[in-house]
Amino acid sequence: MREALARACANVALVKYWGKRDELRNLPAVGSISVTLADLVADARVSVGGRDGPRFIGHGRAVEGRAARRMEEYLDWLGRELGTAERLSVEVDTTFPVGAGLASSAAIHCAVAAAAASVLEVAVERGRLSALARVGSGSAARSVYGGWVEWHHGERADGSDSIATPILDEDAWPVSMVVAIVDEGPKDVPSRDAMRHVAETSPLYAAWIASQPPDLAAMRDAIAARDLEAVGTIAEENCLRMHAITFAARPPIVYWSPVTLAAMEAVRGLRRAGCTAYFTIDAGPQVKVLCRPGDAQRVAKTMSEVPGVVRTLSSSLGPGVRLLEGATPWT
Ligand code: DP6
Questions:
Q1: 41 and 158 inside one domain
Q2: Within 6 Å (CB) of ligand 1, which residues are found?
Q3: What is the CA(26)–ligand 1 centre distance, in A?
Q4: 322 inside domain
Q5: What is the pTM of this model?
Q6: What is the mean pLDDT of residues 19-46?
Q7: How many domains does the chain have?
Q8: 18 and 152: one domain?
Q9: Range of the domain at 218
């Protein structure tokens, strides 16, 4: 049996991916920009040539149901794409809850793609690795790189130009993200299903697509200027717009709980008190707060005092995907 072990960090979008132009390859309807987080980490050990048994083990236990089927299909696709008919299996560990709107699928699928290329000894460029990761989960395309990252919508039908590129690495402009965990359980509606439902039924979907290029341009400028107030303002507006089109679907999907709203209000309170802090929220109730590293402790304390917040996680920006065991398959 041959094995490789890769580590990838989760990423959180500040300009969101919400909607696809191709569901099979996870080609996005819009571009997106994210930050990669050092302390939300997934390790994936991919093996080939092993004995029969569960092919997807998470935290030491065989994963079952839809998540297992999805991973098996992805492993089979990766194998074909990387030129093998051998059976791939994976063991995954994460430092944070899975399936709760904390971008676990991004970190996991990015690490799986990197470990698979390594164990199969296929040399891939980082752009190709991003495309391979994207097919597992769209947002995984961005975890290939550290720091500030853009994932391009792309034009080609095969998706070869829908890949991530780095904007700034993690040391170029350090910021922190504090995650206020409201509910550690799995989300009610997976992002995949919600995106389809919103595209099909939300009367606001077309306006969302049209509003994304200006947000991306403004975000690129704000990052280039190292302007955290501008970055945060664009991120909050973009997040609220993503949730607004989701509320407007028929039937509506609401990822927020009353605690989410209280946490958002706490962030506004921090700002009124002179702290540069801005929220973003993904497909779950957790509230992620962008701030300066020097303010992270204060932000975490305020967020942990919001009634209903279970706990907080704080992270600086982290690196792109890397191999822990096995040869690095990219240059
Ligand atoms: C709200 O990447 O999990 O976090 O491509 O169907 O696997 P699939 O979806 P996924 O969606 C992430 C949605 C989001 C916004 C974002 O990360 O940009």
A1: yes
A2: 13, 16-18, 26, 32, 103, 105-106, 137-139, 191-192, 282-283
A3: 9
A4: no
A5: 0.97
A6: 97
A7: 2
A8: yes
A9: 176-316
